[in-house]
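note to self: the first set is below, dont mix up w the second
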Amino acid sequence: MKSILVYIDKNKNDEITQNSLEAIVAAKQIVDNLSGKISCIVRNGNAEIFSKLALFEDLKVFNLNHSEEISARHIANYLSDFILDKMFDIVIFPASVHSNEIAPIVAVKCGAAFISNAMDFNFTENQDILYNQYLYSGKFKTQVRVKTKTQVMTIAPNRFVVPKDTVENEYVLEQIQMPEVDDDTYKFIEITSAGNVKSLTDARVIVSVGRGVSSAENIAKIEKFATKISAALGASRAVVDNGWLSHPYQVGQTGKTVTPNVYIACGISGAMQHLAGMSRSKFIIAINIDEKAPIFDVADVSVVGDLFSVIEKLEKYL
């Protein structure tokens, strides 16, 4: 009988992230195999978030109210005390920059084993959980068994399928208040927008551009195609280094690691650091004029040709 807490993350529009819903699916997979109860904790939740959580059965929801200007360190400190007080066995964080910051702190303070980017689970006859994860930019797949009573993990994005045909269920909502703290870690001076950047980690389809687009002006043509197929726009490091797109668009070892259903690489040669960030995509389409480009080694569909001509032909079918 496992007591599981799922941390619910929000995007910049104050909406629940897809990865948070996937974290609940991961928790349900554990409960279905080992039995137990699932609780969720969300910071400053709203009606729309609660309605999304109601799509899952038998949830208890803790709504943590706190000041917006608070550091990740203080959130982690509060969560650690909360987890120990409620005696949760397993804590699941969704894949996000915010979760990656606080989850390790929570693990240390709770004396828990920490598993990063769990892809899925296996279960033993002794009701132990075996965590499967990729290491070294996807070069190795490992299986981990931990011995600590409390276990803290982050899950890899797009690994747990959220059911579509669901109905709203009743759930228990408990309001909790985080005490005010004198937070001298940092002070908000100014918040600036990175532009209308569609979340890469949440995206089901990504169209990425590489050095082959030749200029910043040409990216607009690819972005138009991406919009038509409801895809997020990504980029290789070369595009970002040239100043054609900003860093939030970058996919790769020094950018974001993504695992969409479909990844379309446009004019990307396939350097190792880029492959590390996208090679686990479920279906990869590569368009490149160089038939020997390394990107073709990981592609499910390889198209040798001028990327703008290929995109233009594809658009005719939309």
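second set (the one i keep forgetting abt)
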Amino acid sequence: MPTPSLMKRVLVRPVAVFTVAALIVTLTGCTTSGVVTNADCDVAAQPGNLSNSVSVSAEAGTVPQATFPLPLRSTEIERTVLTKGTGDTVETGDLVLFDYSMYEGTTGEKLGTSFQEGGTPATQLLTESAGMALYSGLSCQTIGSRLVLTAPVAQILGDEAAAQFLPTLGKNATIVVVLDIVDRVLGRAAGSPRDLPNGFPVVTNTPDGRPGVTVPSVKAPDTLLSATRIQSTLPEDEQEVVASDSALILQVLAISWDNRTVISSTWEDGTPGNFASGTELPYIDGLTGKKAGDQVVVVTPGPNSMIYVVDILGAYPAQG
């Protein structure tokens, strides 16, 4: 995958997962209706009468006002590109940053948005596990594009999430989403692995970037350990340096040294962690001075010693 243009423009807003109860990251059980495979990308939803019927009053990057014939009822995913952006193309494995407004198709009611002042872009790791509506909706699009997606609520949110967070809609309701692609970053560290110093656990990676850890059969260290296992090969002007108060996008695997068990993993969660400036992270001292694109292994000391394998996807200065 080509190296993306990783945040050359420093975002003035921190990022966060989809704010309607983080619904989109829970997509499940979606079908491939309205999706085609082509030589340029894995899957891409196509325009249709319903997505083409949605009118949006503003240009990409500004707050949209969407109108459409009521009631709007969909049985498959449709995507219409309102504005084609001039930035890099989104690819499978990227972490995509986007703004959205989401509407209920029968009444036109706005269900949620990230466009309000002080709002935060949503993020989604672009893989098939993201669910077909977002996967096919974002695939092959470029940064700066504005899209309209129409689909049944189950294909946008998944059956379980729709029932939990929007129970009054019913499983056959249609959702309309106006979506601006803000940016993309790599979904994993970017560079070549190197050996860790003595005293560190053994860390490996699968081809898709997931780390694995072998904990040594020795006592946990008495002091904080930190070392770069993958050194970023992004262009120098794209290697944002982590400060103690940076807002961060991270892939994190956390393992107990003593119990040798996985405590948490953003890889298993399906989306990287987004941490606002000032978030207390037990491993932040081990990341300070590292750069976007690095993979860093941090071991915290003490009787509850933890191993953190951290891929730094993005680092943004605190907004004062």
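remember for set 2: Residues 196 and 229 are 6 Å apart (CA to CA).
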